[in-house]
Write a structure and sequence with these properties.
Blueprint (H helix, E strand, L loop, with lengths): L3 E9 L11 H9 L6 E3 L2 E7 L4 H16 L4 E9 H9 L5 E2 L4 E5 L11 E5 L11 H13 L5 E5 L5 H8 L4 E5 L3 H14 L5 E4 L5 H7 L4 E5 L2 H14 L5 E8 L3 H10 L2 E9 L2 E8 L2
Parallel strand pairs: 6-7, 8-9, 8-11, 9-10, 11-12
Antiparallel strand pairs: 1-3, 1-4, 2-3, 5-6, 12-14, 13-14
Helix pairs in contact: 1-2, 4-5, 7-8, 8-9
Length: 292
């Protein structure tokens, strides 16, 4: 494991023509550069990547990649070294047990259990993985899962990260969850969180970057939850449709408010009917049902 990480921040420059720039390309660019997840804060999109062997060459490649994916070079780019220990401790500051629904409590592993015993308690240490109840997309998925998972369901969790959604699905009654995650460090955190929550026997980890055909081969399943970004969601839509039978449920998240109309149209084109939308700030999470 690296002793330090490179924090990368990008945003459209003040003089950028946003009508011609693909802002979504900023997120895709950060992931293409090795980021595990992208966070938006005050107009900047941020991630952390493993220490590059040549910082100057990395910055040159980053600018080129971002320009290709956004269609513009009017991009501010900043990098900053962060010690691994400092980066890890940042996750812990300010995190406390959080009730997401009337029966789901997410509790960081370093905090004490509350006096009130929850029906569903998820004990979590995200480590280097994305997935805490502090992000609107994760909360949206948890709220939607709480209303749709049935006893005995078989579920795909695409882009599992810390495993929070896979764990929630099992604790809500799913008999099996296939947790798909491409990042090695995230998979390490995921497996540790499965141990913490006693669900190792019901969650199968698949460390891979998957495409539509892979998802179809993993089906049929009762439901799919995918909290990633709108670009990958769109590319995987054929796979979601092929993995689900008629009446199967699909939860999609990682969708910004302005991306929602296009993403909804693509899901409906694939035969999904909208059942519910969860709005959390600028983020949208949605529950769909597979049509006949």
């Amino acid at each position: 494991m690296s002793r330090r990480w490179l924090q990368v921040r990008v945003r459209a420059r003040a003089d950028a023509d946003l009508s011609s720039m693909s802002v979504e390309g900023l997120v895709e660019g950060l992931l293409a550069l090795g980021g595990r997840a992208a966070e938006e804060r005050d107009g900047w999109y941020m991630t952390a990547v493993e220490e590059p062997s040549d910082l100057e060459a990395f910055v040159v490649r980053a600018r080129s990649t971002l320009a290709d994916l956004t269609g513009s070079d009017a991009i501010d780019l900043e990098v900053e070294w962060r010690n691994h220990e400092d980066w890890a401790e940042t996750w812990k500051r300010g995190l406390a047990p959080r009730w997401v629904t009337a029966r789901i409590l997410v509790r960081p592993s370093w905090t004490s259990a509350p006096a009130e015993v929850p029906a569903v308690e998820i004990v979590l240490d995200p480590g280097m993985a994305f997935g805490t109840a502090e992000h609107g997309t994760t909360r949206g998925c948890l709220r939607l899962l709480d209303g749709v998972v049935q006893s005995g369901d078989r579920v795909l969790d695409v882009g599992s990260g810390s495993g929070i959604l896979a764990i929630a699905a099992v604790l809500l009654g799913a008999s099996e969850v296939i947790a798909i995650e491409a990042d090695t460090l995230a998979c390490e955190a995921l497996r540790e969180n499965l141990e913490h929550n006693g669900v190792v026997d019901r969650v199968r980890c698949v460390e891979a970057m998957v495409g539509p055909a892979d998802l179809i081969r993993m089906g049929p399943v009762s439901g799919v939850v995918a909290n990633i970004e709108s670009g990958p969601l769109t590319r995987l839509m054929e796979g979601f449709a092929g993995a689900l039978p008629s009446g199967g449920w699909l939860i999609l998240s990682g969708i910004l408010e302005h991306e929602w109309p296009t993403l909804r149209a693509e899901a409906e084109r694939r035969g999904f009917g909208l059942q519910e939308v969860d709005a959390d700030g600028e983020w949208r999470s949605a529950l769909f049902e597979r049509g006949a």
